[in-house]
Design goal:
With 677 residues, the chain is an alpha/beta fold. The protein contains 28 helices and 10 strands. The protein folds into 2 domains: 406 residues, no CATH class; 261 residues, Spore Coat Polysaccharide Biosynthesis Protein SpsA, Chain A (Alpha-Beta Complex), CATH 3.90.550.
Length: 677
């Protein structure tokens, strides 16, 4: 109950600015007070496990403490010490409150995070509907009672832009069209409130969320992407119409054309220029927290004497270069390590944590964009939003890592599953007239440090000594098995014959002219067991006919998806392994080229992501007889394959094909002229 109550208060705190600034402080303050209960309850465990020491020694806390020290010195030696120090204590209180809330919610469970998204969803629904009722003059007496004769609601545009990502995330998790009603209402209300800072924040938020949301994890992703675009297009249009009706044509034109000579929001450039001129007088420590209002304004005409209306300029002016540096590094650490955690843990077994993390991150970006033109970053109510979003980002990151640790703890269970199979890894090797290189390919398998494997060689109508060579190896090592046919049927069908006969949990691929590094299986199987990945690949070397390394293929991605694979095949067939226990046996289609890519696409329709181990653990041989040596032969086939995918329209097909062409050229250059280390 306590965790649910804290999350309810935080969700209400995010939207309660519509009532007044005090509403934010009340709800976040109550969440802070309630956070004492789980902290006291778990105090012994916190002390015994060194949680306090761990928190105080973390880099974000270090830079937070440095900022607090710098801003205190700025206030003490600023232009109005008494006032600035009193405002500094508000910042200190918010920082301490954020740490306590984070400490308490460390012990919350998955279902609590799921409910938080639900609470945000319905909080947004209520307050968005309320805002629209006020703007449409449906109950004017009630609007006047709450907001007075001349309601100023422009700041609420930015607030809604911060909260809307959580509603969209919840709608995507529910995967039902009716849940898109609230995001539509939220976007409409955000635009209807008339805040230009909010409009900008909303636009950036919608673009960033669309670009970086893991759509591969969404059921009916094509439908949901179309709904997202329709909501993002039509809700703002409706919001503009509502605002025009509320504010009148003249005010609407001023807002829409950014021409407001006397209104709030005008004269920003003059204010920023004045702030920077005064910063030069105290560049290192600044003039003290909220010192802007105590500057000498004689001889200047500004539209605001309260604050600079830009978070970066305000921090620079009032806490100096040192304060700004601490804030920039603090935010950079928080955001980058969350992004790294998201991209390094791709199983999405607990999608609620990933969704909360992405929505918090996007909400924080919207908060940052709005802060560049809106109110004072040091206003307690506005700073509260940043604190809550940072707490949510850190909690999401922590829980993703915990889930990863749980996966690590399940390694023994994973190995138990593997032990039930006759063999751990089945290696699939097609061979057609491969006598020149097949010995080196087989020897690289035999030399593996991981020995629990079977090698199934499918002789595909070879006319040379390939079959004889393989049979000699099979006589010496019972793990090597031979399938043979007199007439060639192609590499894909030949591999399928071997997959049918495979007895292993993991299906690995190696062509008869390629080779593996001796610890390839050991490292890659351990990597898959630890990450829970059901499909993976590695980096690899490129060699010529004489085994001389001519380059290497090292994709920078940590994971691949269905859509990224349409752009470029970043998993070489000689490095690929998939888990037949999780996916079932999957086969290649009968294509002349790119049979492997088609299989990867089929796998990624079942499993949203594949993982790439960033180590070069194989040798891809490029020679005149290679099936992929001439790119010209495969262009037509690749186009047909892309367009055969049901998810791909003509426009998207052209888009993916262009990426394929560019990546093909770059990969060829890296293979022939890349680094050889």
């Amino acid at each position: 109950m306590i965790y649910n109550a804290i999350f309810v208060l935080l969700s209400l705190g995010l939207v309660s600015l519509y009532l007044n600034k005090g509403g934010v402080a009340v709800f976040v303050g109550l969440a802070f007070l309630l956070s004492f209960i789980p902290i006291i309850k778990n105090w012994k465990g916190i002390v015994q496990r060194g949680r306090v020491k761990e928190a105080l020694s973390s880099k974000p806390v270090l830079f937070l403490v440095l900022f607090l020290i710098v801003s205190l010195l700025s206030s003490i030696f600023g232009i109005n010490p008494d006032y600035s120090v009193s405002k500094w204590f508000q910042i200190l209180g918010l920082a301490v409150g954020g740490l306590f809330i984070y400490g308490a919610l460390r012990y919350a469970k998955v279902e609590h995070f799921e409910r938080f998204l639900l609470y945000c969803y319905w909080s947004l629904a209520v307050f968005s509907l309320w805002a629209l009722v006020d703007h449409l003059h449906i109950i004017p007496a009630f609007t006047e009672l709450v907001h007075g004769d001349e309601p100023r609601l422009t700041k609420y545009s930015s607030v809604l832009a911060i909260v809307i990502p959580f509603a969209i995330g919840y709608a995507l998790l529910q995967n039902k069209l009716m849940y898109w009603v609230v995001p539509f209402l939220g976007i409409t209300a955000s635009v209807a409130c008339g805040g230009r800072s909010g409009w900008l924040a909303l636009m950036v938020m919608l673009i960033v969320l669309y670009m970086f949301y893991p759509w591969e994890t969404v059921k009916k992703k094509r439908l949901n992407r179309h709904v997202y675009k329709l909501v993002a297009l039509f809700a703002p249009i409706l919001g503009l119409l509502v605002y025009k009706g509320f504010a009148g044509t003249e005010a609407f034109v001023r807002r829409a054309t950014l021409s407001s000579p006397n209104g709030v929001g005008s004269g920003r450039l003059d204010i920023w220029s004045f702030s920077l001129q005064n910063w030069l007088d105290n560049p290192v420590l600044g003039i003290g927290v909220k010192g802007f209002r105590h500057l000498d304004f004689s001889g200047v005409s500004l539209t605001s004497h309260m604050h600079p209306h830009n978070a970066l300029i305000e921090i620079l002016l009032e806490t100096g270069v040192l304060g700004l540096l601490c804030v920039v590094v603090f935010v950079f650490i928080i955001m980058t390590r969350l992004i790294k955690t998201l991209y390094a843990n791709i199983s999405f077994k607990s999608s609620v944590f990933h969704t909360t993390a992405i929505c918090s991150l996007v909400g924080f970006i919207a908060y940052g964009v709005a802060s560049l033109t809106l109110t004072s970053i040091f206003h307690a109510y506005w700073l509260s939003y940043g604190v809550v979003l940072i707490v949510l980002m850190e909690l999401s990151r922590l829980n993703i890592l915990r889930k990863k640790d749980d996966d690590y703890q399940d390694i023994d269970d994973n190995k138990g599953i593997t032990a039930k199979y006759p063999v751990a890894v089945s290696i699939i090797m097609p061979c057609h007239n491969g006598e020149d290189y097949i010995v080196r390919a087989i020897e690289s398998v035999i030399a593996q440090t991981y020995q629990n494997w079977e090698l199934i060689v499918s002789n595909d109508g070879s006319k040379d000594r390939s079959l004889e060579i393989v049979q000699e190896y099979a006589c010496k090592d019972k793990r090597i098995k031979v399938l043979s046919r007199d007439e060639a049927i192609g590499a894909g069908p030949a591999r399928n014959k071997s997959i049918e006969a495979a007895q292993g949990r993991y299906i690995a691929f190696l062509d008869s002219d390629d080779m593996w590094v001796e610890n390839k299986l050991e490292k890659q199987i351990a990597f898959m067991e630890k990450t829970g990945a059901s499909f993976s690949g590695t980096h690899y070397f490129v060699v010529n006919e004489d085994d001389e390394v001519t380059g290497s293929i090292q994709p920078s991605k940590r994971h691949v998806s269905y859509f990224s694979m349409l752009k470029a095949n970043d998993i070489g067939c000689l490095t690929a392994i998939y888990d037949a226990h999780q996916l079932g046996k999957m086969y290649m289609k009968k294509l002349r080229v790119a049979q492997d890519l088609q299989l990867w696409l089929d796998i990624l329709k079942k499993q949203p992501f594949g993982a790439i181990l960033h180590e070069r653990l194989a040798f891809y041989r490029m020679h005149s007889a290679s099936n992929t040596y001439s790119k010209g032969k495969s262009i037509k086939m690749r186009w047909k394959m892309i367009m055969s995918e049901p998810e791909v329209s003509l426009a998207r097909g052209v888009y993916y094909f262009c990426f394929y062409a560019i990546n093909g050229v770059l990969k060829s250059l890296r293979g022939r002229f890349g680094r050889r280390g």
